[in-house]
Design goal:
This protein is mostly beta strands. The chain is 10% helix and 47% strand. The protein has three helices and 16 strands.
């Protein structure tokens, strides 16, 4: 598990000066502590293709696990970055699962550069800056390159190159206005009936994940 665990030091604003977090790992089980609160996430119970996060709500001073993170983002029409700002939540950890394996990001409090633990030494884990997060996410999922968009009457045609990580084992779809087509590593060309009020979204079938949107605006 540690080879797919990444630490982001000095990343999250403190709720109070003495605030502390800690992570223990017991096989497939993550035991997370924030001050006096304790949470358990059994990664064997997580479904492939899902994203799970550990959040803190400063209003209630409650720390909790959100198991359907991507679905919540779609329902709220938010990107991951705007979710924290809009909902006033702090994210301490994100766990993505695919092919039975997990990819974990841990975000440390401001002024903290090492992850505390009773079970593991995380010093050998890769430490990243927030500016490196997008590239890291792409390394563990997929990214579209060299996208071209062509409008032809009531059709829109897209051509793009898909680079998919070996970690990501789920099917990938491009979706537009209720239409879905599976896409594959390498060059892809797809055609949809164009609905001018809708963009295209990449991810699970029929998803509307704003964090992976392709803007479709004729003439742009």
């Amino acid at each position: 598990m540690l080879q797919n665990l990444f630490i982001f030091p000095d990343a999250i604003r403190r709720f109070h000066p003495e605030e502390k977090i800690k992570l223990n790992i017991h096989g497939s089980v993550l035991e997370f502590f924030r001050d006096g609160a304790r949470l358990i996430v059994d990664t064997n119970l997580l479904q492939d293709g899902t994203s799970t996060i550990i959040l803190h709500n400063p209003v209630t001073d409650c720390v909790y696990v959100l198991y359907n993170y991507r679905e919540i983002l779609q329902a709220l029409d938010l990107t991951p970055r705007s979710f924290g700002r809009t909902m006033h939540q702090r994210c301490f950890m994100q766990i993505d699962k695919s092919g039975g394996k997990v990819f974990i990001k841990v975000f440390l409090l401001q002024g903290d550069y090492t992850l505390d633990s009773d079970t593991d030494d995380f010093s050998a884990c890769s430490h990243k800056t927030l500016g490196e997060m997008h590239e890291l996410d792409w390394e563990y999922s997929w990214v579209l390159r060299d996208t071209t968009i062509r409008f032809d009457g009531d059709k829109v045609r897209l051509k793009f190159f898909v680079k998919k990580s070996d970690f990501w084992q789920e099917h990938i779809y491009i979706n537009h206005a209720g239409q879905s087509q599976e896409i594959f590593p390498g060059w892809n060309e797809v055609e949809f009936k164009y609905i001018e009020t809708e963009d295209a979204y990449v991810g699970a079938k029929n998803c509307r994940y704003k964090g992976r949107a392709i803007k479709l605006r004729e003439g742009e």
